[in-house]
Amino acid sequence: xxxxxxxxxxxxxxxxxxxxxxxxxxxxxxxxxxxxxxxxxxxxxxxxxxxxxxxxxxxxxxxxxxxxxxxxxxxxxxxxxxxxxxxxxxxxxxxxxxxxxxxxxxxxxxxxxxxxxxxxxxxxxxxxxxxxxxxxxxxxxxxxxxxxxxxxxxxxxxxxxxxxxxxxxxxxxxxxxxxxxxxxxxxxxxxxxxxxxxxxxxxxxxxxxxxxxxxxxxxxxxxxxxxxxxxxxxxxxxxxxxxxxxxxxxxxxxxxxxxxxxxxxxxxxxxxxxxxxxxxxxxxxxxxxxxxxxxxxxxxxxxxxxxxxxxxxxxxxxxxxxxxxxxxxxxxxxxxxxxxxxxxxxxxxxxxxxxxxxxxxxxxxxxxxxxxxxxxxxxxxxxxxxxxxxxxxxxxxxxxxxxxxxxxxxxxxxxxxxxxxxxxxxxxxxxxxxxxxxxxxxxxxxxxxxxxxxxxxxxxxxxxxxxxxxxxxxxxxxxxxxxxxxxxxxxxxxxxxxxxxxxxxxxxxxxxxxxxxxxxxxxxxxxxxxxxxxxxxxxxxxxxxxxxxxxxxxxxxxxxxxxxxxxxxxxxxxxxxxxxxxxxxxxxxxxxxxxxxxxxxxxxxxxxxxxxxxxxxxxxxxxxxxxxxxxxxx
Length: 634
Description:
Layout: H1 3-11, H2 20-28, E1 33-36, H3 45-53, E2 57-61, H4 65-77, E3 82-85, H5 91-103, E4 108-111, H6 119-125, E5 130-135, E6 167-171, H7 176-185, E7 193-196, E8 207-210, H8 214-224, E9 228-232, H9 236-248, E10 253-256, H10 262-273, E11 279-282, E12 295-300, H11 307-314, E13 325-330, H12 332-345, H13 349-362, E14 374-376, H14 379-385, H15 390-402, E15 406-408, E16 417-420, H16 424-433, H17 438-447, E17 456-457, H18 460-467, H19 471-483, E18 487-490, E19 497-500, H20 514-536, H21 542-549, H22 562-590, E20 593-594, H23 595-601, H24 607-619, E21 623-625, E22 630-633
Helix pairs in contact: 2-3, 12-20, 13-15, 18-19, 22-24
């Protein structure tokens, strides 16, 4: 099928968005391609269409399980066969998925970057009929980026096995240094293509306000700006507090953060998406994968740590192309807090070693083992048990991740899965021997087709309703069937995952590159400095500041940020003053007039502004005004 036929059949569109078709044609021509497209620019289509147009399977490398799930479920909803491999899966699940990538008729394999290094993936690599390698969030490959992930550096190594397969690198935010890093570290071949949409979104009114009473100011803003809104805050406690404050001020609001259960997060998210709740107060856990076009304002109660993060979050407003307002509200105290985060983000080498050692004890992993194992992980529970600072623990985990010792995934809901481990004959014999299990076995077989060949998603609540049992009874029966080796059952989870990429080392053998930590610290400080400069500047165009930061050099003001609108208003006011004063002088050349008569003669509605101009002209000896209110020309 042609790419336009695919666009019509699967997505229902007649035409591509700007630059999509050129990127797709570049990939189909076999060129390595870098595509920089702002949030909501339609990046996903740039790998999905060419992958469907070619024989074989597309390898999609993505850093977030939530993104993998969203994209996979979206494609599956269109009847496209998709495989996923990430840290939330068991070894057997991954083994089957990779076998299917080799022998099945699947079009996409979504993979978290840490999985590239595993023996189980490397053993299948050359057998997989890849047609394209798509690297999502490609900025993660650069140490200059705001979300560097060392596992991305391993992507280039698979090119030794797939030298003729094109790579498509996609990102929404990249500075010039990051763009060069992507091209270099992905080993782009000669003749590569580079596409970049402008970072300017002319429907967004960027603004930074300085106000000590942030809560009251946001209420004023929400009263002035109708429609859906996201309020970003840094910590979970403030999410709830602020949402309740808005509710007390008759504004429909709810809150969202990663510490909520999966079902509660889903309910809140859908309520907001369906306009049953106007304002969502959230940490940055909210927004990824949420496609709501009519968000009229995104307000930052706390300063983000980089302009990249701010641009991405601000870009969740105005996706329908209509005017929207990304606004920062800050105080000098916010600047101090942001600068203080440098200390929390950069623990010393001993802190990192202590965290790693405690992790091994927490999961009871002996030294020399644990490679490839994944565990549910609560950072608050872990920090409390070992009396560690939560911020330093998180920072230490990021450095351990960057050093290649482990990976830390975000909190995401992964449903329960089940697979039959025996054949039909063995199941029949088991039922004869264990009649108590007959009901649940028959329900599993009737409800979940394909469970002999693959893991299938199951719902304990659905099974419980079918059998008139409680959910806890169903879970107990499934666990017993697993112990009896009849099925493999993996309960659902919505917690973050820690995966050990290599065997546990002793504290003495753990190598921490202190020089690397210092270099990362300098980069981080520069990003904070740029963020503070953007937020505190009042005498420069914000659109221009953003464009220049991302390497889009321009001397022209954007015309639609708070600075530009104030400048335009001032200019307009000066023109109005000139017009009013000219009219006054023309009238006074004919005769003297009383104030009330002048008000009725001057073509301007606001009396206060006319009076201001009369006072100014009087102060500058251009006119005089008697006690009776008679205005004369001097």
